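Dear colleagues,

For the upcoming journal club I promised to circulate an example of a predicted protein-ligand complex. I picked one with guanosine-5'-monophosphate because it came up in last month's discussion. The inputs are reproduced below in full, followed by the predicted structure.
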Amino acid sequence: MTTIFDKIVNREIPADIIFEDDDIIAFNDINPQAPVHILIVPKKRIKTLNDISIEDEQLIGRMFIVAKFLANKTNISESGYRTIFNCNDDGGQTVNHIHLHLLGGRPLNWPPG
Ligand code: 5GP
């Protein structure tokens, strides 16, 4: 099933895209929860973290390399940041296409609500 993120990848709807390569796209969240709130999204359609397999090992690892790169680019590397995959209802997942949230630019509470 296609999601809003496929439409962003295919340029069917606009987004503030800040990184893209053959496998991954990253853009600002439309409803930011922190001064920096970026979504790092694989172009491959994977519904939830439950659906990743060993063949996605490199892709998932690369999403964190992109997160590190974008944390540096947005000047939150030293102040700190959080990376999150939400999964299914209790995890708060609302878009069924896996994505890594990169949040920073303010102190983040722990534990999350
Ligand atoms: P989830 O709740 O699934 O972990 O995260 C989905 C995220 O996608 C939310 O933070 C939400 O604000 C963001 N989002 C939903 N629709 C759009 C959209 O059309 N454009 C952008 N840039 N972000 C979106």
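Two points we might discuss: The chain is about 25% helix and 20% strand. Helices lie at 4-9, 57-73, 88-91.

See you all on Thursday,
B. R.
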